[in-house]
Amino acid sequence: MSGLFAGVSTRGRVLFAAFLAFLIVAPLFLNDYWLAIIIIVCYLGYTGQSWNLMLGFAGLLSIGHALFIGVGAYTGAALFVHFGVPPALGIFAAILVAVVAGSIIGALGFRFEIRGVYFALLTIAFAEFVRIMVDHSRWLGGTAGLFLPVQNREGIDLLNLRGSPLMFYYIILFLNFGALALCRWLLAGRLGYYWQAIRDDHDAAQALGINVFRYKMIAVMISSAMAGVAGVFYAFYYNNLFPEQIFSVEQSVQVTFAPIVGGVGTLFGPILGAFILMPLGRVLSTLTEHWNLPGIQLLFWGICVAGIVLFRPAGIWPWMARTLRLTVRPGKDE
Amino acid sequence: MPLDTYINVLINGVLTGLVYGLSALGLSVIFGVIRIVNFAHGEMMVIGMFLALVLFRWFGFDPLLSIPVAAVVLFGVGYALQAVVIARVAHLADHMQFLLLAAIAIIIVSACLMIFGPDAQSAQTDYSLDTFAIGDIIIDKVRVYAGIAALAVTGALLMFFRYTATGKAIRACADNYLGALVVGLNVGRLYALTFGIGAACLGAAGCIILLLVDVHPYLAPSYTLLAFVIVIVGGMGSLAGALLGGVLIGASEALAGVLLDPSLKTAFSFALLIVVLLVRPQGLLGKALQ
After folding, report:
1. Which of A304, A331, B69, B111 lies 20 to 30 angstroms, CA to CA, from B45?
2. Whole-number pLDDT of residue A62
3. Residue whose C-alpha is closest to residue B94's, from A313, A28, A126
4. Which of the four pLDDT bands, split at 50, 70 and 90, describes residue B117?
5. Residues A314, A320, A322, A327: is their CA dihedral positive or negative?
6. Which 233-262 residues of chain A touch chain B by CB within 8 A?
7. Residue A321 has pLDDT above 80, yes or no
């Protein structure tokens, strides 16, 4: 456990514990509206963490994360709707399908040495292709959408993911911080160092004898597995799935917002970014409700992301950690 | 189905493809010189479409007459974007530039949504429903005009790159960045000019395509993707490749629309994109990547 907090100052640990404790007790005093917002915040933080694992750690730009989320969502939902398989089991199938999708893209892309922006275009092309295929699948509801039967919304039924918003809140909170711990652990290990070596200099890493194909594949597989889990959450939280929503490029681009604002390649960045963007965007939409401006939240997010890339490309987290002295420099004791 | 149906569909597809080609040219010019993938491509084209729509609604301008206006406005937008915004991130990694343009794309779509609303709007000219008939072959008048206009703009652009000093200077930057600096070219200004020219293509293409398609903000991402497909199939940075790719995609989409389910036609394009990315990432007419 202490390894997970290596490099974090005492002040950082105390603040982190306070933040986590606040989120755990938050439902006691938050109304349903804000609870729903924090659920989306955690969802964005979690999917952002999954995206960040590829770009921030292994240097692989994905603009197709909607694909992994979407196939996870559709697998979990279709198994539940058609065969009554509870999501507690269906999630394994969803992870499997998402990982297979990631592996296909990764294997083709890395085998043919497609790098950088070209790799991003490959991920977009696959996501769009699958979107159109699902559009035409009657079994998956096609363009009309796939709807999950809504029942015992009020009870707590963890196996079937049919419960109150409170249950979804704790699930996504757990996923969010679980992903943080997982990434922290991965990054501190051999795998994390290999990834960073590949990210910083692909050819040098290869020359040093790192099997770049294998480690890039592992990054894509872990990232797509995490996204597949997010998809199952999405399906059972919203109870409806539309291909042009969940597989859209816009969705893939939105996944990138929280980590960019928080800091690409930082661990706490995705969570921080989500906590900045989502509540501010929601407050802004509420304030401008009077004028009925449908795109205002996305406009604001776009401006935030563009501003961060232009003026603070490392993101907010590194600056915040330094200013608030949340971290200790490597090799220095407190 | 009789043969002349196919010929009809093919000709109309090729004419539409010429407009696609002009739009893709905008993407290709920018990538070929500045090495930036303009993720806000379709969004800038939609700005051109809305501009033509407004001119049509307010002053009754034919969309084809709006081409110079939209080209000049979009040139200004592109020039400013490169000179003020993108030049600032030139030192960052490729993916950060890509993500910046993705954010700009989202800003443009949201702004269009707030100004014009989500509904599809069209500019109906008095020749919108007319056709030319050559024997059994029937061709939509608008598509003929659109194809000619696209060819004219494309021709003007190719002449510019071939014969003017500025055009040559821009090609010099693309061929050898360091060499261009050494001989004293103002690369920063030429880059801004290039982005402006690429954006002007989109303005023109937007006006032309308004003859064929109703405009709404969510059209933008699909045009971005379409241009990616065309440019990658034709070869990133190759001007002739963009045109060829445009015609190929236009024709194959039109044919796929008849032979298969019409809504499957884009799936075909993306499958083509995946294959080309894997087998020949430099595209059909592109030079091999280093």
Report:
1. A304
2. 92
3. A313
4. confident
5. negative
6. 248-250, 253, 256-257, 260
7. yes
Q: Is B261 on the interface with A (CB under 8 A)?
A: yes
Q: What is the predicted pLDDT for the residue at A8?
A: 82
Contact residues, A window 260-289, toward B, CB-based 8 Å cutoff: 260, 264
Using the beta-carbon criterion (under 8 Å), do A309 and B102 form an inter-chain contact?
A: no
Of B102, B107, B225, the CB nearest to A303: B107
Q: Which tokens hold the place of A194?
A: 């290999």
Q: CA geometry: angle at A268 spanning A265 and A270, to 5°?
A: 70
Confidence of residue A154 (pLDDT cuts 50, 70, 90): low
Residues 6+ apart with CB under 8 A from B229: A125, B245, B249, B269, B270, B272, B273
Task: Output the CA angle B95-B97-B98, nearest 5 degrees.
Answer: 60
* Residue recorded with tokens 């999501």: A87
CA distance B146 to B142: 6
Backbone angles phi, psi at B282, to 5 degrees: -80, 0
Confidence of residue B44 (pLDDT cuts 50, 70, 90): very high
Q: Are B204 and B70 in contact (CB under 8 A)?
A: yes
- Which of A108, A253, A310 lies at the smallest CB-CB distance from B85? A310
Helix (H) or strand (E) holding A146: strand A146-147
Q: Can you read off the two tokens belonging to residue B182?
A: 């050494």
Structure tokens at A104: 């296909």
CATH number of B3-116+126-279: 1.10.3470
Phi–psi pair at B131, nearest 5 degrees: -140, 160
Partner residue opposite B99 with nearest CB, options A124, A296, A309: A309
* Relative orientation angle of helices A32-52 and A65-83, to the nearest 10 degrees: 120
Q: How many CA atoms lie within 13 A of A235 on its CB side?
A: 36
CA distances from B30 to A23, B26, B46, B47, B176 (A): 47, 6, 18, 18, 15
Q: Outline where DSSP puts E strands in chain B.
A: 131-134, 137-140
Among A143, A144, A148, which Cα is nearest to A232's? A148
Classified as helix, coil or strand, A2 is helix
Tokens, residue A209? 């004898």
Give the tokens for residue A8: 């974090």
Q: Render pLDDT for B128-179 as a digit per residue (tens, 0 to 9).
A: 777 787 777 778 888 888 888 889 988 998 899 889 999 889 888 888 888 8
| B278 close to A112: Cβ distance less than 8 angstroms | yes
Any bridge partners for residue B138, and if so which? B133
* Total of domains in chain A: 1
- Interface predicted TM-score of the whole assembly (ipTM), two decimals: 0.86
Please give the backbone phi and psi of residue A156, each rounded to the nearest 5 degrees, phi first: -110, 115
pLDDT digit string, tens, across residues A276-318: 999 898 888 888 887 777 788 889 999 999 999 999 999 999 9
User: In which domain, by residue range, is A154 found?
Assistant: 2-323
Its pTM stands at 0.89
Every domain of chain B and the residues it spans: 3-116+126-279
